[in-house]
Design goal:
The structure is a homodimer.
Chain A: H1 6-16, H2 22-25, E1 27-31, E2 36-40, H3 46-52, E3 71-76, E4 79-81, E5 89-91, E6 98-101, E7 105-107, E8 111-114, E9 127-129, E10 149-155, H4 167-178, E11 185-187, H5 189-201, E12 205-212, E13 217-224, E14 232-238, E15 242-249, E16 255-262, H6 272-281, H7 285-308, E17 315-322, H8 324-331, H9 336-339, E18 353-354, H10 355-358, E19 367-370, H11 380-389, E20 398-403, E21 407-412, E22 417-422, E23 443-450, E24 455-460, E25 468-469, H12 471-483, E26 502-503, E27 510-514, E28 525-528, H13 529-552, E29 562-567, H14 575-580, E30 592-596, H15 598-608, H16 610-622, E31 623-625, H17 632-641
Parallel strand pairs in A: 1-8, 11-13, 14-17, 17-19, 20-29, 22-31, 23-25, 29-30
Antiparallel strand pairs in A: 1-2, 3-6, 3-8, 4-7, 5-6, 9-16, 10-12, 12-13, 14-15, 15-16, 18-19, 20-21, 21-22, 23-24, 26-27, 27-28
Helix pairs in contact in A: 6-7, 7-8, 11-15, 11-16, 13-17, 15-16
Chain lengths: ~650, ~650
């Protein structure tokens, strides 16, 4: 199969450029399990053909042939190697078919393939998550509430000979009567064109939405007052791996519901860098990347609408927290410059948009606030996180650690703030780890291995049968396996461990946590060596980032008075174990606060309060960025931290190994 | 032809609604002189067919069958009456064809027609006019200049590891270095999407345009600095009958050139009311009305570009002064509510637009300022006029009289302002008057009839052979014909006057001013009874408006300390004669200032100065509107004023009749 076929492909390609051969050279690719038949041209990459057809195949490396996530089974016909140097193929276990990497395969003839379930990127399910509660969403500091967009019901008097103000001014007067602080009020041409009929069709009884653009209050829509249900907003965390949308009552500030799903962009790369590279390699790359996140958001939003019985027209405001690249992709802004040194984004602060600008399934005029970014690698998500913890108002020295696909670390207080970011990878978010799942029903949150009895004790969310392990459970799992010496301090599985759970060898080694008959999926839930390596690298990156950032300021871990742990961890995380595995430095436990999704909490605050939106901009101007990329100390610390908990045990006096 | 054909038309219409008859029932209308062949459906109005085909036929009444401007010659085939009650037809002089009104004719079969030259609406020629000079455009009050849009050449430093601000912030810093008063600076999503490549393609050497939106300075475009020629702007008077565009150097404020042409909307009606009615009667009426004024503007603008050798990209700012309806049509806003009592416009103040929003042939991002309106009948043109005269800053009691298709009258000083408007008609602008033309080369500006010698003495602009009479010349003509008793005090031509110049009778009466061999057009230049009636009604409306407005305030004509006469009159207007015919009240002549196109002068000021733009908004809030429509005193005064100079001669003590 890897013989001298490229010559043939070239010939076919040249032929297909002729004028009348388009139909003759079209190739049919049948995706058996998906029930999809796609047409392709000779020389098309199989992964592209699948993605074009709406089949989301995982490709964390962005098509480089390195992550091996896009394994696909060729049942009939053959494919050709894109680059012989990166070619890989293997017979299936039963020997009847061939496994290849879709990203490295060129189609040259009709083929039938099957996508293994594990290659299907990103669990496409939308899952409900607990709505925000607790200390991070205390609105008492932000009263009276000043949501990004507000709806006012106006019963305007009809124009008469003695009252001939313009339609627009009539609305302005009506609004000012309800809130004298709305001036200056503006409107764009689109609204003015609709205004005369909008007012008269509803006999001047209208619901008017007003959006705070930062420099003015813009009248965004004028509709019949009969449709004026309660007005709703969305707080959104646009994560590299996971996207969470929270539905909020804008009048009361009450969070109503929240749901999440994987970011469909995972099909184009695991991290922001590989996704940017992917957009550079595809002519319509930016457009497709935009479509993927827009579709992801709209799937979650539609799920919430259906669940809560909501009319999309009720949703008039959106606050988005995402890293700089996620935000750029959603806005259709080229992110190439973020990848290239010195990593410059198009803008730090962004204008308040309308939902139609980016295709969100809300009222088309809904205001959209995007949190400002500090740099290419310190984005709106971390600004939102700072805002939520209130560390920028604290007298105490605070440390915020957000463990996401991009790990972010902020230190400071009300006088100064410094931040750094590190590429932690999405391991704790469960991406690329078969045994993992989001923190929703059936997820294992707590896990302990009893080596003597060779049993696993666990707790799941809502006590549902176990389907996988969430971030919190992964921390406890590592701690327990290390404590029982199933794994050593480098995270290597002891394949000689006296239990049938430990099996395989080297990179194929795995430890079975739940046997098929114990699992809610009827398949074994196992942790592989590969998974442990990824998890340790993630935590090493975070710990190294903390160490270097503190060291840069001449600070010790013990100087930190409050430490906030945000990201893929619930409030049930056992902080002792987070310290035990070296995810967090060894500080007194009462200083550690597990705050969950701080980016979402910040988005909630900016959705509800002008003061919070102003503070977001203030945070940007007081935040200094420390660039860890190419920092030799960071690489040294990273290597030293890729142990449980660290090579230097003196830094973890409380660790009880 | 007027027999019982409507029944047949109904039958044909029903037939044409069938599924397969579209082609069978199509009718061909051949416009012989224009060289255009159009297809129509049975029952289409001939005027619509012509207008759809781009043939601008005059229709001052908006298709009501009353103005009789749309006479058309049917050479082959026949047309059917739209409304038998309004039907009119007449054989041509040679008896070989039939004259009908295009607006009252339905097409039911293939026909060949010819449009008489006099029916072709609106002289389509673009003509150059003198650029503004004199007292109305003194910029010394407005220094330093703050044009609506400004262009800055920025030589930005390249991003480095030590200088990682975002692209947008880099531009903001560069702009702030040049002008510290530009904050807050904003940009829309479109610009942010273009920014990364715009900066890098030009190695960060860019020309940036910034537009003052009233609430912020918006960065509108970022282009390679090599294209940064001098930046230009346009001041525009969007008149109901005539449109004037002035090209201005934004850096120095120097007016470069100005040109005008008829407003192509004349094809849809002479005044704003008939045009609004026309938009109501046609599904795509508003769109076609918008297209007509946009095309008119772009024809003038393109003429100026060609004449001055200008790249459209240099034009970055536009200031528009138009009445409320003209502005609404240009912006694509429905004006129906302006026509209906109580005459409400969509908005008083309008947002600063981009040229692309309304299709102007400038840089697409050019800022567009529209002067705010007070009401449906006191528009941005009169606000611009007040601004230009500075009467809102004057200690003296000032009266501004703008004689346009809509006559506007403002009285007041720096403490208060009151205005009224009256439907004067476009007679003094020459519309509908065969002998008239705009005040350009060859126009008669001064005219005197020597009854004893039966000769006409005249002066023309640039001493060119006479081609017609401009507004100033029309005033002198009426004064002279009245003085020599060619016409009586009601404006009626004395057909028994002992001169071959007086000929015809009743409504067909006319007075020949220049015989064919004396005229630059080789056709006689005559004034008809119909023309004189229109001119007298125009001046009567203006004089009645002044009288009622003053009376309403308990003021006498003599209380007025400064009177500004604006509109279709040049600085050469003989004010004695304007008083003599009763266009203006009898005040001391040194109080009368003929100020030309004050609306254009105001647009020039707002183009160049933020102070002027702010003043425009202040004027709106201090201006009270007196509604003359349905005012019995106005109707009485109008009838009494429809004389030369007035029925009550005691009001004109200086009149030397």
């Amino acid at each position: 199969m890897t013989s001298n076929m490229p010559a043939l492909i070239t010939a076919v390609r040249q032929y297909s450029r002729g004028t009348e051969t388009q139909v003759m050279t079209d190739i049919t690719v049948t995706f058996r399990r998906c029930g999809i038949t796609a047409s392709a041209e000779p020389g098309d990459v199989l992964l592209d053909v699948a993605q074009r057809s709406g089949i989301q195949i995982a490709s964390y490396c962005g098509g480089q042939g390195t992550c091996k996530q896009c394994e696909i089974v060729v049942l009939e016909g053959t494919v050709e190697p894109k680059d012989p140097a990166r070619w890989w193929e293997e017979a299936t276990e039963d020997g009847t078919a061939t496994l290849v990497l879709a990203c490295q395969s060129l189609v040259t003839e009709d083929i039938t393939v099957e996508v293994p379930l594990r290659a299907l990127a990103a669990d496409p399910a939308v899952r409900d998550v607990d709505v925000l509660t607790g200390e991070l969403v205390d609105l008492s500091e932000f009263l009276p509430l000043t949501p990004l967009s507000r709806q006012f019901a106006l019963a305007l008097s009809l124009p008469t000979h003695d009252d001939t103000v313009s339609d627009f001014d009539r609305i302005v007067h009506g609004l000012s009567d309800q809130d004298s602080e709305l001036a200056p009020l503006t409107a764009d041409l689109r609204l003015l064109r609709e205004l005369p009929s909008a007012l008269r069709d509803s006999s001047f009884q209208v619901a008017v939405t007003v959006t705070d653009t930062g420099v003015a209050n813009e009248i965004r829509s004028v509709r019949p007052v009969a449709t004026a249900d309660s007005s709703l907003g969305l707080a959104i965390d646009v994560g590299t791996s996971s996207v969470v949308v929270q539905l909020v009552d804008l009048t009361t500030g009450r969070p109503i519901a929240a749901s999440m799903r994987r970011n469909a962009q995972i099909a184009y790369g695991e991290d922001v860098i590989s996704r940017i590279v992917w957009t550079q390699q595809h002519d319509d790359g930016l457009e497709r990347m935009h479509d993927a996140i827009r579709d992801t958001l709209n799937q979650i939003i539609s799920h919430l609408y259906a669940q809560q019985g909501i009319d999309p027209e009720q949703v008039i405001a959106v606050s988005l927290a995402g890293n700089t690249t996620m935000t750029a992709f959603l806005l259709g802004i080229d992110a190439t410059t973020i990848r290239r040194t010195p990593h410059i984004p198009a803008a730090s602060a962004l204008p308040v948009l309308a939902a139609r600008d980016i295709g969100l399934a809300t009222q088309p005029d809904a205001g959209v606030f995007c949190h400002p970014a500090v740099s290419g690698f310190v984005g709106g998500d971390i600004i939102a996180g700072i805002l939520a913890t209130r560390m920028h108002r604290s007298e105490e020295l605070c440390l915020l650690v957000d463990v996401g696909t991009n790990g972010e670390i902020v230190i400071g207080n009300r006088d100064w703030l410094m931040c750094a970011s590190c590429s932690a990878g999405p391991a704790f978010e469960g991406v690329g780890i078969d045994a993992a799942m989001p923190a929703t029903a059936g997820a294992i949150t707590s896990l302990e291995y009893d080596a003597q009895r060779d049993t696993i004790q666990y707790e799941t969310i809502y006590d549902q049968p176990p389907r996988g392990i969430c971030g919190t459970g992964l921390v406890e799992m590592i701690a327990s396996l290390a404590e029982t010496e199933v794994i050593d301090r480098t995270g290597t599985i002891n394949v000689d461990f006296p239990s049938a759970r430990a099996r395989g060898s080297d990179y194929e080694a795995e430890f079975v946590l739940l046997w098929p008959d114990e699992s809610g999926t009827e398949e074994a839930i196992s942790i592989r060596q590969h998974d442990l390596d990824n998890l340790l690298r993630s935590k090493a990156a975070v710990l190294a980032g903390i160490t270097v950032l503190l060291g840069n300021l001449g600070l010790e871990t013990t100087d930190v008075q409050r430490m906030y742990l945000a990201g893929a961890f619930g409030g049930s995380l056992d902080v002792d174990k987070a310290v035990a595995i070296g995810l967090l430095p060894d500080v007194p436990r009462d200083r550690i606060h597990v705050v969950g999704n701080s980016a979402l909490a910040g988005a909630y605050l900016t959705l509800m309060s002008r003061k919070a939106r102003n503070e977001a901009n203030e945070i940007v101007s007081s935040l200094t960025y420390l660039d860890l990329s190419g920092d030799a100390r960071f690489m040294d610390e990273f290597i030293a931290s890729d142990f449980i908990p660290h090579t230097d045990l003196s830094r973890f006096p409380s660790a009880n190994m």
